C-alpha cells in the first residue's frame, strides 16, 4: 500500500478535504459570484479556485509525495500526465453553472488512483449534505449507509441522465440534440442535473438507471466516480476506450 497507509485512511483524509471545501461552496453559494469564462458556456468562479487550493493543500499536508491533478490547475497550465504513482484527481466544484445560477446540484469530487487504478472516491454535495464514498471492492455509501444500483432491466422503463456539454458549435449541438431525440423514444424520461459527478452518484444509489454523455471533459469527470461505481462491481459499458492517457468519445453506465 502506498506510503504504508490503508485505503480507509486515504478515504478519511479525502472526506475531511471534501467537507472543508464544502464549507467554502456553501458559503459562496449565497454570495455574489465573480465569474470568468473558460469558453462560451464553461464557467469558473473564485470558489472553484479556492476549493481546489484547499483540497490540494490538505492532501499535500498528509501525502507530500503523491501526485495531483485538478480541473482548474490543468485548465491553467495544461494536461498533467497520469502515472503509476498515487495520484489525487480533483474537481473542486462540479456544477459551476448551477452554482452561479443558484441551482443546488453542485459538489466537490475527489478520487485517488493507485497504479492508474481508481481506488478511492468521494463526492460531496454540501447544499444537500450528501456524502458519497467508495473504496474499490469494499462497497459504496451515502452518508455512511450502503447504497445499491437500480434493479431496472427494461430500457423503456429507465430514467436516463445526460448532459448537453459546453461546446456550442453547430456539429456538436446537432449531434447532442439528435442524441436526445433518439433517447427519448427509448427510455421513460431524461434528466440533466448539470453535474456529471452527481449523475454518476445517482446511478450508484439507484435514483437513475442510466447515464450517457458524449465527449471527455477530463479525468475529474470519470475517475472519482468510478471508485464509487466499481466498489461493488457495477456493470458499465464504455462505447469507446475511456482512458486518461487516450481520452474517450462517450461512456454510459447502468445497473
UniProtKB/TrEMBL annotation:
| Alphabetical keyword list | Hydrolase, Lithium, Magnesium, Metal-binding
Provide the residue positions that the database annotates as binding Mg(2+) 1. Answer: 71, 91, 94
Q: Which reaction does it catalyse?
A: a myo-inositol phosphate + H2O = myo-inositol + phosphate
Supply the enzyme class, top level.
hydrolase
UniProt-listed Gene3D superfamilies: 3.40.190.80, Fructose-1,6-Bisphosphatase, subunit A, domain 1
Q: Which pathway does this polypeptide act in?
A: Polyol metabolism; myo-inositol biosynthesis; myo-inositol from D-glucose 6-phosphate: step 2/2
What's any GO biological process attached to this entry? Answer: phosphatidylinositol phosphate biosynthetic process
Classification via Pfam families: Inositol_P
Which CDD domains does this one have? IMPase (cd01639)
Task: Write down the InterPro entries for this protein, in alphabetical order.
Answer: IMPase (IPR033942), Inositol_monoP_metal-BS (IPR020583), Inositol_monoPase_Li-sen (IPR020552), Inositol_monophosphatase-like (IPR000760)
Binding-site residues for Mg(2+) 2, renumbered to this chain: 93
**EC number(s) in its UniProt entry?**
3.1.3.25
| GO function terms (MF aspect) | inositol monophosphate 1-phosphatase activity; metal ion binding
Q: Which cofactor does it need?
A: Mg(2+)
Family to which the UniProt record says this protein belongs? Belongs to the inositol monophosphatase superfamily.
Quote the protein name from its UniProt record. Answer: Inositol-1-monophosphatase
